[in-house]
User: Which sequence fits this backbone?
């Protein structure tokens, strides 16, 4: 498949995920939490997926053709994070800024989410050619290493959102650690 | 830090990347350190204590019950799965009839085993529309049908060693797919004074329909001024005991959950504020009330309203 078609296919697939997610939430008993949690989780899945491209192409050089999908994956990860945060602001708190502030202060778990979201915003905003040229490609690559702390904090946020230690966050954290250790050892 | 692109060498990028990777892994330590150092009982913030300023009658008439299908499909019942929807989606494996509740303990002079029909036959069915507040900061309004817990306890003839009431949920791997999540039966407890309070119910129905598996069929505890995890479901034993029962959530996570678990907007959960709550089925949030709006009725049970131990 030509690259444009590949990208389009991924865009459409993730759009279907978004529509499905909204529909599931609307059909469920609690639209607010279901949409908030599902979008948060999907953001993490896609961020982790975006970290898999380099190791995978190192193992199978022929799969380099899929590299352009990384940007699509990253942008959709950000889109899901936006849904997550917007649900929180609009549906959960109905733009009650004072109420949100009450929830934020002294709440490490929310702070981790906020910092992570701020870093993701930088990454998303710099995901274009202009940003690559802005201070040179190397600097741009440095900016994009912000993905590691952003994802680490989002995973900490996910872990802390649970009442009991559960296996899903532990699994995602393990995948993250494996990917980072690989990157450390074989970073280019 | 300002770096001209021309100054950056790939080696620098490489080292910077490693630093970021370290930061990424390091950030995972934040929750770990947080849990390691967070105090078990954070200091009570006395100044933030709200006054019981609720017009009870007004509140009572103003309650709009949550729709039955919402009440029946948004549940925490870990014995049937961890998500909110798992309990209502689980196969109906709980055998609720016949069902008997054993009432005893060293504090009961007249122990006995009762069928649900016996309990219904001996005591009046009461209907109460109560606020329901989960410790996870969401709420509903539920029209319960049930019997006064006090009457059931009176029938067991409590003696002087009846200081607490211990509730035990069915623990059966055949009937509950996730029966062992806490390593044993779900346990809850109340003080005698709390159990004898007229607000406390043993509920058997909602909206005049029998309880469903996911809402704790066939009989469950209802204590509307406390967080929802106190409402033990599918009860098989009620014991009048001398020692404070160690309830399941207290045992599972003592940093976050205790024995009393009375609703109080001024005492935050370690991970979120309890000042407001999400009303299931609506958008936005509403203020949480001291003792979930039942302060006039129950505040006298607690000598020190600034003692955090009463509120988590
Ligand atoms: C402004 C930033 C953010 C805020 C205010 C926020 C808020 C929240 C809240 C309130 C919860 C629910 C916790 C609970 O169950 O009680 C949550 C859960 C979660 N958040 Fe965030 N979040 C933020 C950013 C992020 C980001 C950037 C990500 C991912 C990249 C993320 C991923 C998640 C995940 C995976 C969950 C858990 C869902 C589950 O339990 O299934 N959050 N967040």
Assistant:
């Amino acid at each position: 498949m030509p690259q444009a078609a590949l990208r389009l296919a991924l865009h459409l697939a993730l759009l279907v995920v978004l529509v499905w997610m909204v529909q599931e939430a609307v059909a469920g008993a609690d639209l607010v939490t279901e949409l908030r949690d599902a979008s948060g989780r999907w953001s993490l899945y896609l961020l982790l997926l975006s970290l898999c491209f380099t190791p995978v192409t190192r193992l199978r050089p022929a799969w380099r053709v899929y590299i352009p999908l990384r940007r699509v994956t990253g942008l959709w990860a950000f889109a899901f994070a936006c849904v997550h945060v917007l649900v929180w602001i609009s549906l959960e708190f109905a733009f009650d800024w004072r109420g949100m502030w009450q929830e934020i202060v002294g709440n490490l778990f929310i702070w981790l989410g906020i910092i992570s979201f701020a870093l993701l915003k930088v990454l998303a905003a710099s995901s274009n050619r202009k940003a690559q040229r802005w201070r040179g490609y190397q600097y741009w690559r440095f900016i994009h290493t912000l993905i590691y702390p952003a994802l680490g904090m989002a995973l900490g946020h996910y872990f802390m959102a649970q009442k009991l230690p559960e296996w899903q966050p532990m699994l995602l954290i393990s995948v993250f650690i494996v990917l980072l250790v690989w990157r450390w050892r074989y970073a280019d | 830090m300002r770096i001209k692109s021309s100054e950056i060498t790939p080696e620098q990028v490489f080292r910077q990347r490693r630093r970021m990777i370290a930061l990424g892994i390091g950030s995972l330590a934040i929750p770990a350190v947080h849990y390691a150092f967070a105090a078990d009982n954070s200091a009570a913030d006395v100044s933030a204590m709200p006054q019981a300023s609720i017009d009870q009658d007004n509140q009572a008439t103003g309650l709009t019950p949550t729709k039955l299908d919402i009440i029946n499909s948004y549940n925490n019942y870990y014995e049937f799965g961890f998500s909110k929807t798992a309990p209502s989606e689980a196969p109906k494996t709980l055998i609720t009839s016949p069902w008997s509740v054993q009432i005893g303990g060293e504090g009961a002079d007249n122990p006995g085993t009762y069928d649900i029909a016996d309990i219904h036959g001996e005591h009046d069915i009461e209907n109460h529309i109560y606020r329901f507040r989960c410790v996870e900061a969401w709420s509903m309004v539920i029209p319960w049908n049930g019997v006064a817990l006090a009457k059931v306890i009176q029938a067991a003839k409590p003696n002087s060693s009846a200081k607490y009431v211990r509730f035990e949920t069915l623990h059966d791997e055949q009937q509950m797919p996730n029966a062992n999540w806490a390593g044993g039966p779900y346990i809850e407890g109340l003080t005698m004074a709390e159990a004898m309070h007229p607000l406390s119910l043993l509920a058997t129905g909602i909206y005049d329909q029998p309880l469903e598996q996911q809402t704790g069929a066939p009989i469950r505890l209802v204590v509307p001024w406390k967080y929802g995890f106190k409402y033990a479901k599918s009860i098989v034993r009620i014991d009048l005991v001398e020692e404070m029962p160690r309830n399941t959530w207290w045992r599972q996570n003592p940093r976050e959950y205790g024995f009393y678990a009375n609703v109080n907007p001024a005492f935050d959960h370690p991970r979120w504020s309890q000042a407001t709550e999400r009303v299931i089925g609506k958008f936005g949030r509403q203020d949480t009330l001291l003792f979930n709006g039942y302060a006039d009725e129950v505040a006298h049970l607690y000598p020190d309203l600034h003692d955090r131990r009463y509120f988590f």
The first strand of chain B starts at residue 100 and ends at 104. Chain B touches chain A through 49 residues (CB under 8 Å). Confidence is low (pLDDT under 50) at residues 3-7, 41-61 of chain B. Chain B has one domain: 93-311.
